[in-house]
Specification:
Blueprint (H helix, E strand, L loop, with lengths): L1 H12 L3 H13 L15 E3 L2 E3 L3 E3 L10 H6 L4 E7 L12 E4 L4 E4 L8 H11 L5 E6 L8 H12 L5 E5 L14 H19 L7 E5 L5 H13 L4 E4 L20 E4 H18 L5 E4 L5 H10 L3 E4 L1 H6 L3 H15 L5 H4 L6
Parallel strand pairs: 3-4, 3-13, 4-7, 7-8, 8-9, 9-10, 10-12, 12-13
Antiparallel strand pairs: 1-2, 5-6, 6-11
Helix pairs in contact: 1-2, 5-6, 6-7, 7-8, 8-9, 9-11
The structure holds flavin mononucleotide.
Length: about 350
């Protein structure tokens, strides 16, 4: 299995990015993915009531149609977020729409929520989720929807009972106008409707956590407003962050001028700065999930110390393959112990090392 996995990973890297991604999904669904347990007591933690074996999650976008959550849990991830899924299937933007920036260890994508829709997503979750770990559903809105806020309610209703948590993604830069839902009255209206839908769906059962996923391109006034509204409407946590529309001057790769969201190494610093600002704004009252540029145990540790209760990653997998989750776990556990922490939660929001 080890050799097969290495061979498959090597071959996949020679393909154009989107074909490589589809080949990786196929290999994973055939059971060719790595198998790692990530068993460190110091990493076991709680996130908004979810018990995680470790705080390293797979970010949304890798498994948009919930084809391989179990394979990614088996690779060592502590939780897996599938999606974004929209109510109706949609093709996304014309190809090419996914670009590697190898010199920058980065990716630019303008996929545009290509996915097979909620019915297929719910069917996949039902048939293949073996209760082997925590699987979340990241919800988006259709490009042509006339009431985008309503699409999130449709998503909640369709997947309720099938996912361990939900993420409301209002921060993709590739659906024009979507990120306007992060602002003032639009956000208040959306969160109000989510809170109502949640009450109706929950009845007297405990509700699964619902997270809000935000962009990194926000100023402190926006961060304060989002934090306050998220708390007011009972959101369970904030995921920080999605890809950025910014293009740092230091990018070197040929594809650096492509339109879309930038992720990977160049996003590490800005997304961690925004995470720290959310932590300051929330004073630790709402759990934060740190995403953006994580490629090592050290990166994960920096996010945790900046205020993240858990982290997620995607782009680094493009360069390092799915075994990275277990590598990060081992390194993070060693760093926590070396600094005298007995549990990852003790390190959340402490001064950056
Ligand atoms: C190809 C690609 C597709 C993505 N699709 C989604 C998506 O559908 N929904 C979402 O919330 N985030 C999506 N993301 C954003 C990631 O979940 C993550 O927030 C971002 O890439 C930063 O993390 P990273 O630097 O570890 O990749 C996507 C990212 C990439 C690279």
């Amino acid at each position: 299995m080890g050799i097969l996995h290495k061979l498959a990973t090597g071959l996949i890297k020679t393909l154009p990015p989107e074909a490589a991604h589809n080949a990786a999904l196929r290999a994973l669904s055939l059971g060719l993915g790595p198998k790692h347990s990530c068993d460190h007591n110091v990493l076991k933690t709680e996130l908004a009531g979810l018990s995680l074996p470790n705080p390293i999650g797979l970010a949304a976008g890798f498994d948009k149609d919930a084809q391989v959550p179990d394979a990614m849990l088996a690779a060592g991830f502590g939780f897996v977020e599938c999606g974004s899924v929209t109510p109706l299937p949609q093709a996304g933007n014309p190809k090419p729409r996914l670009f590697r920036l190898p010199e920058d260890q980065a990716v630019i994508n303008r996929m545009g929520f290509n996915n097979k829709g909620l019915d297929n997503f719910a069917k996949n979750l039902k048939s293949q989720k073996s209760k082997s770990g925590i699987v979340g559903a990241n919800l988006g809105a259709n490009k042509d929807s006339t009431d985008r806020a309503a699409d999130y309610m449709t998503g909640l209703a369709a997947v309720w009972g099938l996912a361990d948590y939900f993420t409301i993604n209002v921060s993709s830069p590739n659906t024009p106008g979507l990120r306007d839902l992060q602002g003032g009255e639009a956000l208040e209206d959306l969160l109000g409707r989510i809170s109502e839908a949640r009450q109706n769906l929950t009845g007297d059962q405990p509700s699964p956590p619902i997270f809000l996923k935000v962009a990194p391109d926000l100023d402190f006034a926006q961060i304060e407003r989002i934090t306050e509204q998220a708390r007011t409407y009972g959101m369970s946590g904030i995921i920080i962050s999605n890809t950025t529309i910014a293009r740092p001057a230091h990018l070197k790769s040929a594809h650096k001028t492509e339109t879309g969201g930038l992720s990977g190494q160049p996003l590490m610093r800005p997304s961690t700065r925004i995470l720290a600002e959310f932590y300051a704004a929330s004073a630790g009252h709402i759990p934060l999930i740190g995403v953006g540029g994580i490629a090592s145990g050290r990166d994960a540790y920096v996010k945790i110390r900046a205020g993240a209760s858990a982290v997620q990653l995607y782009s680094a997998l493009v360069y390092k393959g799915p075994s990275l989750a277990a590598e990060i776990c081992d390194d993070l556990a060693a760093r926590l112990k070396a600094d005298g922490f007995t549990n990852v939660s003790e390190a959340v929001g402490t001064v950056e090392p």
